[in-house]
Amino acid sequence: MPLTKLQYRPGINTEFTSYANEGGWEDSDKVRFRFGFPEKIGGWVKYSNAQIFGTARSLHNWKALDGTELMGVGTNLKFYVEVGEAYYDITPLRATTTGTATFAAVNGSSTITVSDNAHGCIPGDFVTFSGAVSLGGNVTAAVLNQEYEILTVPNDNQYTIQVSATANSSDTGNGGGSVVAAYQINVGIDTVVPGTGWGAGTWSRGSWGSAATVVAGGGNIRIWKQDNFGQDLVYNIRDGGIYYWAYDSLLSTRGVALSSLDSNAPTIARQMLVSDRDRHVIALGCDAYGDATNTQDKLLIRWSDQENAADWAPTAENTAGDLIVGNGSEIVQGVETRREIIIITDSSVHSLQYIGAPYTFGLTQISANTTIIGPNAAVAVGDAVFWMGRDKFYRYDGRVQPLRCDLLRYVFNDFNLDEVDQVFAGTNEEYQEIWWFYCSAGSQNIDKYVVYNYMEDIWYYGTLARTAWSDTGLRDYPIGATYSNNLVYHELGVDDDETGTPTAINAYITSSEFDLDDGHKFAFIWRVLPDITFDGSTAESPQATLTLLPLAGSGSGYNSPASEGGTNAAGITRSATVPVEAYTNQLNVRVRGRQLSMKIASDQLGVQWQLGAPRLDMRPDGRR
Question: Which of 236, 318, 305 is nearest to 272 (CA)?
Answer without folding.
Answer: 236
